[in-house]
Amino acid sequence: MKLTPEEQDMLSGKHGKAARKSMEILTALGEIFDAGYMVDVYGVQIAGVSYANLGEAGLEFLSEMAEDGKVRVLTTLNPAGMDRENWRALGIDEEFAKNQNRVIDAFAKMGVITTCSCTPYLIGNTPHYGQHLAWAESSAVCYANSVIGARTNREGGPSALASAITGKTPNYGYHLDENRHGQVLVKVNAPVEGTDEFGVLGKAIGDRLVGLGKKIPFITGIPSATVEELKSFCASIATYGGTALFHMEGITPEYDRYPKPKDIVLEISQEDLKKARSELIDVDLETDFVSIGCPHASIHEIAKIASLLKGKKVRKEFWITTARPTKRIADEAGYSKIIEDAGAKFAADTCCVVAPIKGRFKGIMVDSAKACYYGRSRNRFKVKIGTVEECIEEATK
Ligand code: F3S
Q1: Which of 22, 159, 256, 366 is the 20 to 30 A CA-CA neighbour of 224?
Q2: Is there a contact between 319 and 288 (Cβ–Cβ < 8 Å)?
Q3: Residue 325 C-alpha to ligand 1 middle, in angstroms?
Q4: Whose Cα sits closest to atom 7 in ligand 1?
Q5: The pTM is what?
């Protein structure tokens, strides 16, 4: 790879051990993918933050990097394994909390903003069109590329941290125009509305893309979509289709930048959506857990939950998972009091997938297709998808 003098200095160790290690990781990646050179990144989002995933080996790597490593660009974290303030109320044990805090402290020492969220774009780690990033969370990567028109590959934990410390990423994959063309034309011939239905659509398309061995759809037939619907769609299509970039006609900023794909056409009908939805509902489900906020709930979603819960009482464990800064806005707006008076709990900094709750519940109801996938595969829950209104009804009935 062609490195600038500053990048060469980092590689030779002039900027310290962590910068050298970081540049080694990035140049190795760049060589594998034939990147040619590095680009500057506007921001970084690091995944693999839960102690449940990292373990002692991951923590050891972080601690070594934290000896002299400092981030050069705005860097935030993906959800951790617990709410950093409210972990006791969520049933997290003391030992796990201690270890999770060691992980967060190592990131903090490096200058990472320790906001743990999969929606960095809602809380200030907000790029604009065309900017290069090194983000790791699959739903956020898909949102950045597709909804914002920024450019990022899906980074692993170490490569994202390396980009944070150097401010660079190798110029390959989704950073390049030639890899951002739509590959499959997808015609949606059914109305789609609500976070749950956009998640169902993401599964319906994602499953078919996997069968075709393609990843970048060009989607028509969606006249409008909210931020919340798009974040749900991104999480779902990234989960079921491995998609990190899509184009949605009239909605995503790059949709008319490249020629429309012609050769492969997929049609999504009402029947397809019905089938995909039925696959996200286990028949023998006994719901004892309801969770909204996958990806992390926006303030709009929290406002809606508060209005639906006002004056009611929940009768099941009910989590609203969100970013800490969004929770603070909810506190100031009075939404948190309404929600907590109803007996629901905020789980900021974490979510129903990364928290260590395997086996604690039998069945989970969510409005997110991604949460269904991981609820089953990681936490061994039975699952059911529904609208936000149906989730609230289930929690209060
Ligand atoms: Fe975010 Fe957890 Fe869902 S990280 S996308 S809330 S699985």
Answers
A1: 366
A2: no
A3: 16
A4: 353
A5: 0.97
